């Protein structure tokens, strides 16, 4: 940089400050200093490219006026930089050599992100926007971020994001779930900031429910939609590293959907079910049966399948032979009732294994081997009718996972007992 300044930071703030990737994201709970981190990084970029333009973004004009502009002005004053804030243009002009200018813009109308180029950009609270709105704004911001300031030999156009995790929205999808090259994330819990009042965290805990606390104190992505189907599932607390061992019996939950078959592979460990593998988005029942047979049956595993009872009707492929017959002919043991359990009973059975009233978690998921199941358990909400929502696509893996649990660990008596059991249709 052109000058030396002293900046005091927490450990996550310093880690983020030193990031060298193209698109870093600082995701933190309340009180982790997101705006302070933004200001520090923006000032750094302004000193590195004194002939450039640094773009700063807030969701609304009020946030620009009340939070962002005053913080940048404070930093510039602290570092002895003369400036003039043109409120009509929303540009902070720095008259002292050695510091770039700042253009302040809002995210409420991405179509207005035009008419200028920036060297680096800093985006505050991007995840407060709806997913499509955030994606549109992001595309416009990175398109404008192409300036090549004179005197900067190795210009590096970086765009940084600072946000509270607001559920499974744009930031989760872009930086956490499946990040592309150059997208890196730093997550900061509130407790990492030693400068907060002593009672700050306790006051938040007294004011927010558990799921919001995970987001707003721990900086974690959680389902913030009212009425999550599996609210106690945690990819940390319910995680296991279990893999299927040679010759070990396996239990497979199966959901039938044309071109979207799902199979969840469990093993039993100490009276708990461990999801160790998954097969999702499979074309049809014959294809799923073939995959299971090649991966497990021919390798010496005894395979027990707990299918969707609707498979006794017609094949997912549309043939006259039933799905259950296809599975039986493949050599699997079939365990199913004549009808599916009530959705409420299946969901309650799954939730009881996720976390019971004794604090026990008997449903474990290898989150690395079962990414679809993990995401579905985290994100599936209830719809307006009080049923698990099927419009988001998070139902198939959850349904498949629930059939073995409802059969082996029911929360009530089976729905049907007269001929309901298809007993050990074995090889």
Automatic annotation (TrEMBL):
Keyword flag Nucleotide-binding: no
Domain Terminase large subunit gp17-like C-terminal: 252-403
Organism of this sequence: Pseudomonas arsenicoxydans
Protein name, as recorded: Terminase
Keywords, alphabetical: Viral release from host cell
Superkingdom, natural source: Bacteria
Pfam families with a match to the protein in the record: Terminase_6C (PF17289), Terminase_6N (PF03237)
InterPro entries: P-loop_NTPase, Terminase_6C
């Amino acid at each position: 940089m052109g000058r030396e300044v002293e900046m005091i930071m927490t450990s996550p703030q310093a880690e983020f400050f030193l990031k060298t990737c193209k698109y870093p994201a600082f995701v933190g709970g309340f009180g982790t200093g997101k705006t302070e981190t933004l200001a520090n990084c923006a000032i750094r970029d302004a000193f590195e490219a004194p002939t450039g333009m640094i773009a700063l973004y807030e969701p609304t004009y009020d946030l620009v006026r009340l939070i962002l502009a005053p913080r940048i002005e404070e930093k510039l004053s602290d570092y002895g930089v003369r400036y003039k804030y043109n409120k009509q243009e929303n540009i902070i002009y720095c008259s002292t050599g050695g510091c770039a200018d700042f253009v302040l813009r809002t995210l409420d109308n991405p179509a207005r992100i035009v008419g200028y180029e920036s060297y680096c950009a800093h985006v505050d609270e991007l995840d407060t926007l709806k997913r499509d709105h955030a994606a549109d704004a992001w595309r416009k911001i990175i398109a404008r971020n192409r300036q090549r300031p004179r005197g900067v030999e190795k210009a590096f156009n970086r765009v940084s994001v600072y946000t509270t995790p607001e559920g499974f929205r744009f930031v989760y999808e872009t930086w956490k779930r499946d990040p592309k090259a150059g997208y890196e994330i730093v997550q900061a819990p509130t407790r990492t900031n030693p400068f907060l009042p002593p009672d700050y965290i306790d006051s938040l805990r007294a004011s927010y429910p558990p799921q919001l606390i995970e987001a707003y104190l721990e900086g974690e992505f959680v389902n913030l939609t009212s009425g999550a189907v599996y609210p106690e599932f945690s990819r940390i607390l319910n995680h296991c590293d279990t893999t299927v061992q040679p010759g070990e019996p396996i239990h497979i939950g199966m959901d039938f959907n044309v071109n979207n078959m799902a199979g969840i592979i469990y093993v039993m460990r100490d009276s708990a079910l461990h999801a160790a593998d998954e097969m999702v988005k499979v074309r049809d029942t014959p294809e799923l049966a073939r995959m299971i047979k090649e991966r497990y049956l021919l390798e010496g595993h005894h395979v027990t399948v707990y299918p969707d009872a609707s498979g006794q009707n017609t094949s997912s492929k549309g043939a006259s032979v039933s799905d259950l017959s296809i599975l039986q002919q493949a050599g699997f043991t079939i365990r199913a009732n004549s009808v599916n359990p009530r959705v409420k009973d299946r969901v309650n059975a799954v939730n009881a294994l996720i976390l019971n009233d004794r604090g026990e978690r008997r449903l474990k998921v290898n989150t690395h081997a079962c990414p679809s199941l993990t995401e579905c358990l985290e994100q599936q909400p209830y719809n307006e009718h009080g049923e698990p929502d099927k419009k988001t696509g998070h139902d198939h893996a959850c349904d498949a996972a629930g059939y073995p649990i409802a059969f082996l660990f029911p929360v009530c008596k089976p729905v049907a007992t007269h001929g309901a059991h298809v007993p050990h249709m074995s090889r």
